[in-house]
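#struct-help
A.M.: can someone run this one for me? Single chain, 233 residues.
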Amino acid sequence: MKPLLKNLPWLFVLIPFIWLPAAQAEQRIISVSEKMASSDLKAAKPVTRHNKKTLSQFASKTRDEVTSQSIYNDFWVYDSWITLLDDIDGDAYYSRFLVEFDVDTIYVEAPVYAVVYLGDADEYEAIHVSDTFWVHGETTTDSYIVDSELVSGFSAYDYDILIEIYDADTDELVAFSDGYEDADLAFVSLESQNYDIYRETVVVTSHVHGGSVMIASLAFLAAIICWRKIKKS
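D.P.: on it. Structure tokens below:
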């Protein structure tokens, strides 16, 4: 028993280090769906097809790594839009958002897929790999929407979004856009659902009505003073 008691102080020193990794290992969970923005698009080939690429195939990357990659001018992201949804606690940080982007190409049609990243403008982490979809020249009816819901693991922050476009036949990076290319992708206020919690604040106020009480008190004090003066005289 004595050796255990003798070493007991060391246990209190080690507890923070035992607990800390568990606290830092908050799992990042994201629920994602995707679709073509226009349901009126008619194409000779299927609009989407299954893409077997996984997130594990796309490591996190720095801004310098993104810009240093060589791409051709056969594809480009013409424009992108962000729609913010679901702010339960009303702090202007959203747990659900839509990324819509319009990819154009010099070809009549071409199959591509997109990888969406979240980051801080210095380093980006892949959060979704889309199915393959077809882009058709420079038409505006083939934009694509990725609907992302941050479930856990993302604290409130103004994130940057990076969109990479890959040729579905060759897996070659053919275009990208980020906050430097498109301001809509910069400083997007997001947080996951486990931070987006409404907490009701109860405010207790007290009201003191002193009008009649104050008058009665003053009258009582005046009566005492008068009584003392009469008694002395």
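A.M.: thanks! The chain has a mean pLDDT of 79.
D.P.: also worth noting: The two ends are 85 Å apart (CA to CA).
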